[in-house]
Amino acid sequence: MAKLIYSMITSVDGYVSDSDGNFNWGTPDQESHDFINGLMGSVGTYLYGRSMYQTMVFWETAHQMPDAPQFVVDYARTWQAADKVVFSRTLEEVSSERTHLVREFDPAAVKALKDSREKDLTVDGPGLAESALRAGLVDEVQLFVAPVAVGGGKRFLPDGLTLNLGLLEERRFDSGLMYLRYAVR
């Protein structure tokens, strides 16, 4: 059985994007990107909402950028090799390989997906993650905490959600980024 992991870069005050929708303050450097590339090797399926998918579909062609650093090419190849499930009522079609469009988030279907996979799954984007967290489907929460406070925006965790977490791993990067990996109890 695979784990379902919620992992994103967040500001120290708990936001994945600021009040203008920007998240460039959290762009990983090579050291942290190499680490993320290693983590994603265990992932076989990404679960996305529309907005997060539209951000991440960049990786479908990122390896073709002139002078793309090797860590970018490596992440693009890992992303391309994984299955993607996009949950959206409004998206008309997907534009990447190995991608399926699903209209409604169904906790039972996601649990069946976890039960049938050998490689882990990630739930990406705070809106979709909220649904998975509230349904009790998330096994791990992984935060990459950037050394910046943005003062508002889209929260990493929703208001009103109580989680009991156990620290599994932590790592500090030279840039000041912190990786925190928790089991959901």
Automatic annotation (TrEMBL):
InterPro entries: DHFR-like_dom_sf, RibDG_C, Riboflavin_Biosynth_HTPR. Residues 3-177 form the Bacterial bifunctional deaminase-reductase C-terminal domain. It comes from the Bacteria. It holds the Pfam family RibD_C. This is Dihydrofolate reductase family protein. It comes from Arthrobacter horti.
